[in-house]
Amino acid sequence: MARGDHPQRTPFYGIAMMIGVMVVGTLVATSGASQAVRVPVYVVLFIIGILGAALTFRDYSH
Predict the structure, then answer these.
(1) Which residue ranges make up each domain of the chain?
(2) In this predicted model, what pLDDT tens digit does every residue of 10-52 receive, in sequence order?
(3) d(CA 12, CA 47)
(4) Can you point out the beta strands (E) in the chain?
(5) For the chain, which terminus, N or C, has the lower number of CB atoms within 10 Å?
């Protein structure tokens, strides 16, 4: 295995992204921000969450 080529790196990044999405989503939801701010933030968080899930649950067959 080459340096920096650890097989668990990509799933770790995915988990970190999903945890970040949950934390930021909670902060935005409880901050009392206006709807004009919350909706775009939620859309971006949704996209990041999907990417994080894709990184976490990638194909382990090889």
Answers:
(1) 11-56
(2) 788 899 999 999 999 999 999 988 999 999 999 999 999 999 9
(3) 18
(4) none
(5) C
